Amino acid sequence: MRTGSKPTSGKRVVGVVGGGITGLTVAYRLYQSAQQQNLPLDLKLLEATDCVGGLIQTTTENGFVMERGPDAFITTKPWAFQLCQDLGIADQLISPNPNFPRSFIVRARKLYPVPEGFYLMAPTALWPFVTTPIFSWRGKLRMAMDLFMPPSVQDTDESLEDFVVRRLGREAFDRIAQPMIGGIYSANPRELSLKATMPQFLQLEQRFGSIIRALVETMSERRAGGARYSIFRTFPTGLRTLVDRLVQTLPSNSVQTRTAVIALRHQQGEEESQTLPKWEIHFDDGQSLVVDAVCLALPAIQTAKLLTSFAPEVAKLLKTIPYVSLATLNLAFERSQIGHRLDGMGFVVPAIEDQSITACTFSSLKFPYRAPEGKVLLRAFAGGALQQDLLERSDPDLLELVLSDLRQLLQIEGNPIFSRMTRWTASPQYHLGHLDRISQIETEVSKINGLELAGNAFHGVGIPDCVRSANQSAEVILQHLF
What we know:
Elements: E1 12-17, H1 21-37, E2 41-46, E3 58-61, E4 64-67, E5 73-74, H2 79-87, E6 104-107, E7 110-113, E8 118-119, E9 122-123, H3 126-131, H4 137-144, H5 160-168, H6 170-181, H7 194-197, H8 199-208, H9 211-218, E10 232-233, H10 240-249, E11 255-256, E12 261-266, E13 279-283, E14 288-291, E15 293-296, H11 300-307, H12 312-318, E16 323-334, E17 346-348, E18 359-361, H13 363-366, E19 375-383, H14 395-410, E20 418-428, H15 434-445, E21 451-453, H16 463-481
Parallel strand pairs: 1-2, 1-15, 2-11, 6-17, 15-21
Antiparallel strand pairs: 3-4, 5-10, 6-7, 8-9, 12-13, 13-14, 16-19, 16-20, 17-18, 18-19
């Protein structure tokens, strides 16, 4: 239903722009509600590329199951797991391998296990912390001072770096907090808003007066081996299972790929009119679609371009949300090529180590069904806010840099069986003041009937956060239309 088309008699038409996990979930929730409540709804999911899924891209090659984007989601944020339950595929989910419940950190070009009981930035168990070589004795004593320091009385938006250095010292930040937390957001911790990303630590500080004391009292279960890894879930054939299932639930004519939206126009009309459409969606082939409501599930900068003509203030605010690029490299090896025991999930690399990679997952050790018998699949990461210059290199040059570091860290001999590199410009940065910016955006958007924004630019970058954002947008659209 394209050029000059109008809604089928009695039906409301919704356009969802963007076919990533957010847009797919918006479409699914709308269709699900329409079916359950017998609502007259016509749905169009519009994706510019030739396939839906966004960052979730699973490929299979020669028995290797490779994730080019995220490889799992967490269950402590319940929305993605609930989605899987609603789709009838939750029973297919698998957890990480319980035989390797630990990860490593690089120090002086060697891998050291993260101390048992250590959670992101602080310890919950004494002896593993005392004996770890990751920190110097001076660094350990400075971290222990957290037990005696009063909580901050200021309510300013503090950066991750400032918070950790204030509570636990510079070494705690450089050696563990920066690679473990900053890496989640591919961010510069000096600019990363703690309120927007890890507000629980601010709450723990106020409640317990000490981060270490708070973690000991509230997260003692993490001392049990592997407890923190058990919160992750994926599927035997990769996260693409979730995407495929979402597509299967939607009417076949509702999903339109290779459909690039270049403009969005808000039609003015009588609010009480039941037939007058409110939006025109224009495509790069000159055609258009008329809808009653639209959800933009796109990166902030793309959303801003579509809103400039009728919501310039919102567009201006969206443009202040920066993005950084990163590269994911899937590398296949014979097990005999790797000297390291690979007795963990992977490792992270502090920025002060000055290496080409920020982290590496032992994919075929972390989850089953990822590599044939006798072979290993590694997944390395490069780029992010602190290494943007590396991504200016060609694919062969970047691959060689990554392999050079991996060869030393994991005692690898020879070249991989094959490698697959994926470059993304898709990581929004939650800089200081992020929550205030988002509040302003949401206030202005709430004044525009029939428009919803959703995605990872607002209240969380993970799959559960995207699903939650989609759920909320679908609910608002249904309230507006019916």
